[in-house]
Amino acid sequence: MMQREILVILENKPGALARIVGLFHQRGYNIESLHVDPVTDIENYKDIEVLLNLKLKENEVSKLLITTTVSDNLLRQILRQINKLIDVLIAKEEI
Amino acid sequence: MKLAGNDILIQSLINEGVEYVFGYPGGAALHIYDAIFNQNELEHILVRHEQGATHAADGYARATGKPGVVLVTSGPGATNAITGIATAFMDSIPMVVLSGQVASHLIGTDAFQETDMIGISRPIVKHSFTIESAKKIPQVIKEAFYIATSGRPGPVVIDIPKDTTAPDKLFDFKPLDSVEIRSYNPPIEPDPKQIERAIEAILKAKKPVIYAGGGAINSNASKELFELNKLLNFPVTNTLMGLGVYPAKEDRFMGMLGMHGTYQSNMAMHNADLIIAIGARFDDRITNTPDLFAPNAKIIHFDVDHSSVSKIIEANIAVFGQVKNSLIELIKQLKAKNDLIDENLIKPWLEEIDKWTELHGLNHELYKENSDKNMILPQAVVQHVYNITEGKAFVTSDVGQHQMFAAQYYHFDKPRYWINSGGLGTMGFGLPAAMGVKLAFPEEEVVCITGEGSIQMCIQELSTCTQYNLPVKIININNEALGMVKQWQDMNYGGRHSESTYKSSLPNFVELVESYGHVGFKIEKNSELKTTLEKAFSIKDKLVFVDIYVDPGEHVYPMLVAPNGSLKDMWLSKDKKV
Ligand SMILES: Cc1ncc(C[n+]2csc(CCOP(=O)(O)OP(=O)(O)O)c2C)c(N)n1
Ligand SMILES: [Mg+2]
């Protein structure tokens, strides 16, 4: 068990955040801290643009930082569950 | 073309190829209902309870592979649909649920019949939408159908504030051909390298098992599975959700596995050195205690959903993609290495499995009993139904002992013919699901194998069957008890039957169904069983309800020993445990 930080980039759409928070609760994972911002500094997300093969626009997506204490296996499962959400562009461990 | 929101909505559904909408009207949905009245391309089926609408749409979807469509009003209409949405979600069934909502300006004011449908349904949908304006309707409908039917299918809820379907505001309507959702890209084609690794393991296996589930049916992969096994000749087991994806009549088919799986399937899984999971998710009814599951097996897992792989049982080789596409690639690569397949390698294994089948396999000849000294066995009822329908009927079921007997003794040779709530285990599913199937296939025999407990949970739909003339057969395996509950109480609670019997309060089912205009039969004796069932099935134009009183003491076996058991630990009868 280790404290991890998860980065989620998701469409800035109504309900998108609630789905992620709901998923943590529903699957029995604990959220220790949560921080959400609209993404305005596009230039800092070049790596994600390359990874997803798309262009981001200002305020079109949100950035979520979640900290949680979990094992490696559970982290993998959480990331897969979040990535499965329709409005999520990417979820990964922030190292 | 200029149309109002309500007409845009219905037109968008028609453009998706929707034939039937299962629903129930109410205030917040009335604009939409008016648009339904003004067209004749899709038919609305008026159920008697919104739960019935969701299960009917679900049955339609399971039988056809096309999405089921539901329309309900806000508040109680929406909440009544929840059980059916959860049922579809657990079994990955494509469904689109349109729920009326109070007008936008009233949202959040606790208006009459306002509930937060998006919030209530969030954990049990694949995705959900709120319509913000009539202009967005075509886009939302297109996305909803795409999401519901692609990847791992599932239900999608669309909440529709009343003002967005107002008939007095017109908008330009342009149908959409397709949509793309940049944040949603379910895998389709497998990674050929993973297939290569899978083949390496397959060629080495001495004790392989193919374990195929509902995902293989969703992906329409039964033809490919069959073709694959013509090359491999591996033993095959299906989950409760997967029955029919591999023909039951094939020699290599071992029957269902898991909680009430056959002895040979469970033993084969436990002793396997290679398990090839195809669209199956290792749920707890399959694995028993995960730590004790198949201790010597390597796992190859084919699935479209990343989060299903290595969730409970770690996969050694994971192949992501539509299961159908993955099997096509597997077959292609395997054919190129055909000469490396050594049939002798698995011969001792096949012989071992045959021995298990001989030792403790199910008895498929119980139907031969015709003495009235003994009570009717529920298993024999299913065997008669199988014989009379020549194994060709669509069979829907409810939840309980009757469901397990149906799964064990009706042999399915084709996918989409066995229709039951596997994941959620929803009593009340069987009758409305049968209605959906019958609407989709009016010429086919549709049988609902149910119990007197389950049938009463959606029995109001007998009235819908009258209105739309849906001549399904209902086989009520009547043990005058919540049999499965009673079985657990017998086995784990010292036989204390807490609240699992009804004390002579059951209705006269024959009179009940006759009051709806249907035909009813009651059977209490073995000597009458075959002839009365044949008579029932000879009636083609009416719904027939056959109320069959069976031995209430009968249990479902095999049954896995739990907790702390493995797949080889089974009860085989009331006093025999292995
Ligand atoms: C809606 C719902 N409530 C409760 C249960 C728990 N449950 C599972 S099987 C069962 C008994 C079902 O009785 P019946 O339909 O008569 O079937 P039998 O087991 O007697 O064949 C119950 C209550 C359930 N699966 N679904
Ligand atoms: Mg019963």
UniProtKB/TrEMBL annotation, chain A:
Domain ACT stretches: 5-80
Q: Which reaction does it catalyse?
A: 2 pyruvate + H(+) = (2S)-2-acetolactate + CO2
The record's annotation in Pfam families points to: ACT_AHAS_ss
Query: Cellular component terms, GO, for this chain's entry?
Result: cytosol
EC number(s) reported in the record: 2.2.1.6
Q: What class of enzyme is it?
A: transferase
SUPFAM superfamilies according to UniProt: ACT-like
User: Which terms in the Gene Ontology molecular function aspect does this entry carry?
Assistant: acetolactate synthase activity; acetolactate synthase regulator activity
GO BP annotations listed = isoleucine biosynthetic process; L-valine biosynthetic process
Cross-referenced PANTHER family, in alphabetical order?
A: ACETOLACTATE SYNTHASE SMALL SUBUNIT, ACETOLACTATE SYNTHASE SMALL SUBUNIT 1, CHLOROPLASTIC
Subunit description: Dimer of large and small chains.
Provide the protein name: acetolactate synthase
**Natural source organism:** SAR86 cluster bacterium
